[in-house]
Amino acid sequence: MNITRVKKGASRSVNDPTAKGKGPPAAGESGAISRTEAVQDALRQAIIEQRLQPGAKLPEDAIGDAFGTSRTIAREALGRLAVEGLVELKPNRGAFVANPSLDEGRDVFVVRRGLERIVTECLSGKLKADEIAVLRDHVAREREVSGHNEVESIRLAGEFHLLLARLTGNHVLVRYVTEVVSRCSLILAMYGRPHSSDCGVSEHGEIVDALIAGNGARAVELMDHHLEAVASRALLQQKAERDIRDVLAPYAARIRGLEA
Amino acid sequence: MNITRVKKGASRSVNDPTAKGKGPPAAGESGAISRTEAVQDALRQAIIEQRLQPGAKLPEDAIGDAFGTSRTIAREALGRLAVEGLVELKPNRGAFVANPSLDEGRDVFVVRRGLERIVTECLSGKLKADEIAVLRDHVAREREVSGHNEVESIRLAGEFHLLLARLTGNHVLVRYVTEVVSRCSLILAMYGRPHSSDCGVSEHGEIVDALIAGNGARAVELMDHHLEAVASRALLQQKAERDIRDVLAPYAARIRGLEA
DNA sequence: GCTTTATGAATTGCATGCACTTGATGCATG
DNA sequence: CATGCATCAAGTGCATGCAATTCATAAAGC
Description:
Shape of chain A: elongated
Strand order of the largest sheet of chain A: 1-3-2
Largest sheet of chain A: 3 strands, antiparallel
Order of helices and strands of chain A: HEHHEEHHHHHH
Oligomer: homodimer
Largest interface: A-B, 34 and 31 residues
Mean pLDDT of chain A: 80
Strand content of chain A: under 5%
């Protein structure tokens, strides 16, 4: 439940700009955490979904306009996304969608494997019945869309790992896993082959089985291999396509950003 | 070349402060360093060193005044520290130094152990001569101050782990380790016994030895035990002292905050 | 006398204005 | 014709002002 903060206008306008200067933020929302978070979440989503291409410029005004807020909000959201590693902040130049190098990508995957190892160890043999049901259900859904809907497939794959992290009940772990999964999505989108992410659905199922069986070692092994497979699928491309993709992507992205 | 313009707010520079700016701030990215970052680093240091007690209020103007900047800077720094988990942001109430519960503390340590496991695995048998020298030197310094200067001792202990993380060359890893080390410092300060942190110097030495020897398994084991020891030292206190410390700390911190 | 409701001070949330930095365009020069 | 330099526009960096919220204090009601 991370998106619940959004009040009325989810992605379009965070604040109705009718009464721009003095408009009270629709007085008494309960649990209303600042608009900053809403914008931050929206931007994150947009980046992960590749609506905003890596390297694209993110001008404060444009973002403010797009969300019906001032630059202040946009700026703060960008700052926090920079901490998360999804945005790069260049002093006096502005913010850009992160454009991770392959080395960075490798780094992220290394950390991700370590984090998910913790998740797996925490969960092995400790899943409750209802939690198992949720997991099985999720894997089933993944299987459904596999092959049809690629965007959804990617989203669900990421969600699977987030789900596991949440089941640990370890909030710190959840935050970090969330971050690396986001960044991995970006990296896969950049370097992975178009339909390289469908694979692995069966692996998810196996991991769940091992977790239920309480076979921690096997679960960890499965998870690790799973992630290594995903990573290598992405990083293998480099040898062949690095020149084209890696070199051209930033420029292409920049052009796109200017068109928008 | 326009000399007539002198910025008013910049009168008391953020750069000069003899105050806390010591520790290696967010090493990694390019220098850059906006005022926001300076304030962020200073606040982080102050929190870690317990100059700012857990639960203490962090009003924007006070921070702005203290650093000679406006609330804007203070606000942004607080926002980012909140992402790091060192500051808690309560909507419409303001920012407070994080006051992690014991459960949170446990969570942080779990993640930390996982992260440092990665560090250890990355480093085992791959240290170069000059890196080894730096490590040995650091451990020697730790040994020197051990027993005498507690604050410095704690700082160096944290620094040792950061040093290892940096040696991996994995920036993502560095960032996360930095964060968990910070948070662990806070947690130890809150729940650990006064001089519980001196211990472990010899363990650091052993870890370095195992890394040099290329004995990855042993290094991981040592590191894991080391961290478990540190964690348990902190968490054991809870049974006896939870009621007093945990309950009273926030209030005490509040009072201190008001005095300041 | 104690609970409940107004009033006010302090502080956050947010927008906006102004100076400064940076990169681009056009002009003069070798 | 290429190179270096001044001018300019776009956009960031930061401070500040105003409305809204919250908490504390005081007044009114039972």
